[in-house]
């Protein structure tokens, strides 16, 4: 029996490496290369259609990927994951096997303080990273509705189940440095329940974005009080009706580029 969750993890690693290397530039181009319609490929990528042997074989044949590795997780001694693409193979193999690098990488990771409501993050999932600035005018909607492919996937078990993106804002300095990678989950039911005092990413209906603590507003139940870590920023009230969605920030990687 094919283990879909593990195949998806390995497929995402290879997909990201191939796309970064220029093997294909769009999902439409990938679909054409492996003999599927864009709609069929989209169903697989979004998990609505299971990976089957026909799909895996066509993908592996087109890009010289090891079928044993992709389908079963078996990597034969001295056989690369991508059979004829050494530079891409190194990238994938490093993500899958290099525990030494993963330790040094995660040493810069900071977990946000856990509130009264425990975190419930998924297990054994790669973290999709979108190379977009949460605090700028980049299209965060593409992340909201999954209409854009991630730039790559990050193997960080502490934030499995999160979405990762950058925030070039100094409103949370010295806690969160500008340019840090944030790990967040979108709160679907924030109007019904939201824990005050946590760090959130707030997306407004007019496109504005804020990285702030959310506190209870003193005067109006229909507003939130937004507060920065940086004392140079004043507190202000935000009407709840002006908010499109809210992301809970589980942690961050303080790493400037």
Outline the fold blueprint.
Layout: H1 4-21, H2 27-34, H3 38-45, H4 53-63, H5 67-72, H6 86-97, H7 99-106, E1 109-111, E2 127-133, H8 141-144, E3 152-154, E4 163-167, E5 180-187, E6 199-204, E7 209-216, E8 223-227, E9 236-239, E10 243-253
Parallel strand pairs: 2-4
Antiparallel strand pairs: 1-10, 2-3, 4-5, 5-10, 6-7, 6-10, 7-8, 8-9
Oligomeric description of these chains: single chain
Sheet bearing the most strands, described? 10 strands, mixed
CATH topology of the largest domain: Umud Fragment, subunit A
Proportion of helical residues: 25-40%
- Helix and strand content put the structural class at alpha+beta
Low-pLDDT regions? 83-107
Q: Helix and strand string, N-terminal first?
A: HHHHHHHEEHEEEEEEEE
Proportion of β residues?
A: 15-25%
Q: Can you identify the CATH class of the largest domain?
A: Mainly Beta
Rg (CA only):
20 Å
Query: Which CATH-level-2 architecture of the largest domain?
Result: Ribbon
Helices, by number, come to 8
Number of β-strand runs: 10
Instruction: Compute the number of structural domains.
Output: 2
Morphology: elongated
CATH fourth-tier homologous superfamily of the largest domain: Umud Fragment, subunit A
The separation of the N and C termini measures 43 Å
pLDDT averaged over residues? 78
């Amino acid at each position: 029996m094919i283990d879909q969750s593990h195949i998806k993890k390995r497929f995402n690693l290879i997909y990201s490496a191939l796309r970064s290397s220029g093997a294909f530039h769009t999902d439409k181009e990938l679909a054409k290369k492996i003999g599927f319609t864009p709609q069929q490929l989209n169903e697989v990528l979004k998990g609505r259609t299971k990976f089957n042997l026909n799909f895996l074989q066509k993908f592996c044949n087109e890009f010289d990927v090891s079928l044993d590795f992709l389908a079963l997780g078996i990597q034969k001694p001295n056989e690369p994951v991508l059979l004829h693409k050494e530079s891409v193979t190194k990238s994938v193999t490093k993500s899958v096997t290099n525990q030494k690098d993963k330790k040094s990488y995660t040493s810069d990771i900071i977990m946000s303080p856990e509130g009264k409501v425990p975190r419930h993050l998924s297990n054994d999932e790669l973290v999709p990273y979108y190379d977009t600035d949460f605090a700028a005018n980049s299209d965060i909607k593409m992340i909201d509705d999954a209409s854009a492919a991630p730039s790559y996937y990050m193997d960080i078990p502490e934030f499995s189940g999160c979405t990762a993106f950058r925030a070039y804002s100094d409103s949370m300095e010295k806690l969160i440095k500008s340019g840090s990678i944030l790990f967040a989950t979108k709160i679907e039911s924030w109007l019904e329940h939201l824990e005050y005092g946590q760090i959130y990413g707030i997306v407004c209906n007019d496109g504005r974005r804020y990285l702030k603590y959310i506190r209870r507003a003193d005067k109006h139940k229909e507003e939130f009080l937004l507060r920065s870590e940086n004392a140079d920023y004043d507190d202000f009230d935000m009407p709840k009706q002006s908010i499109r969605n809210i992301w809970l920030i589980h942690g961050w990687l303080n790493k400037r580029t």
